[in-house]
Structures are given as C-alpha cells and as structure tokens.
Design brief:
Strand content: under 5%
Largest sheet: none
Radius of gyration: 38 Å
Structural class: mainly alpha
Distance between the termini: 93 Å
Order of helices and strands: HHHHH
C-alpha cells in the first residue's frame, strides 16, 4: 500500500478523514485555504503591478537617456561635418595640408582623402 510507504501521504490521508468527519473542521479548513489563496492573489497582483510600474519607469528613463545620447552624437557628427566642409573650402583655396590640419584639427590622412 502506498499510504503505508509515505509519511506525507499518511498525514494527508488522516487530515482528509478528519475533515470529512467534522463539518466544522472542514469549513474552517476551507476558509483557511480561501484566505491563503486570497493572500496569494494579492501578492501576485502586487508583483504584477510592481513589474508594470518598473517597466514603465525603465522605458521612460531609457527614452530620456537615449535622447541625451542622440543629441550628443548628433552634435559630434555635426561638428565633424562642419570641420570637413571647412577643410574642403580651404583645399579649394589651395592652402597647404598642414595649415588645413592645424585649422580644423583633422589629421593629414583625413585631409588627403578629402583632396582626392
């Protein structure tokens, strides 16, 4: 017999027999189980709401940080494009490459590529 082999099953079987014999004990047990399930539902709801709030806040922070990085990157790229444009104009004026490098901060290699 399986019940004889397992103390947990023996204990559960004894509890079922006790509850089936005593209406008051069975009702009390059902109330305890319901209370436990209600508490679990509250905890699950709280966890779910916390996760939703965390995701919302994380997205908001991510967007803000992304915008900052995008603006910074855009400014950097804009400066670089501006320096390249100045270098092209100075090349048209036939200034020496070293002078153009000094004026723009671009490397001689970068200026040579623009000249080609």
């Amino acid at each position: 017999m399986v019940a004889a082999a397992s103390p947990a099953i023996q204990k559960a079987t004894a509890r079922v027999m006790q509850l089936s014999d005593d209406e008051r004990a069975r009702l009390l047990h059902e109330y305890e189980v319901k209370a436990w399930r209600d508490e679990q539902a509250k905890l699950d709801y709280g966890i779910e709401q916390g996760m939703k709030q965390g995701i919302k806040q994380g997205m908001k922070q991510g967007i803000k940080q992304g915008m900052k990085q995008g603006i910074k990157q855009g400014r950097t790229e804009g400066r670089t494009e501006g320096l390249i444009e100045v270098a092209r104009n100075l090349l048209k004026m036939e200034l020496p490459l070293t002078k153009i490098s000094d004026a723009t901060g671009l490397s001689l290699d970068e200026i040579k590529k623009l000249a080609d």
